[in-house]
Amino acid sequence: MRRDLRACERDAEEATLAQSGASRSDFGAAAPGAGLPSRGETPLQFHDRSAMAERYNRRVESCMTAKGYAQGHPADQAAKPNR
Fold it and tell me: Is 41 helix (H, G, I), strand (E, B) or coil?
């Protein structure tokens, strides 16, 4: 399961970054400019990062589901009615 999860995470990261036109280096610690302390992300930067995280998580979940995994405890899955 761990191997499948790592593969899904890697694929989801690559796809999410490509879709957003971003790279891994865009998410490193930002160095304060001109000796001024960093004021953190702007609301738009926070929104963009949050939206990317949601897309990434959906891709990982979809990939794992395609590999036959289900979220939650097995007993919970058995209690669900078949659709």
Answer: coil
Inform me whether the pLDDT recorded for 1 exceeds 80.
yes
Q: Tell me the C-alpha distance between 48 and 37, whole Å.
A: 22
Tokens (6 digits) for 21: 């036109």
Return the axis-axis angle of helices 2-20 and 43-66, rounded to nearest 10°. Answer: 140
What pTM was computed for the model? 0.68
Per-residue pLDDT at 37 exceeds 60: no
User: Where are the alpha helices (H) located in the chain, listed in sequence order?
Assistant: 2-20, 43-66, 74-79
Q: Where are the domains of the chain?
A: 1-19+43-69
* Chain mean position to CA 1: 18
* Residue 22 CA: distances (Å) to CA of 9, 36, 78: 16, 25, 40
Secondary structure class of 79 (helix, strand, coil):
helix
Q: What is the pLDDT of residue 25?
A: 73
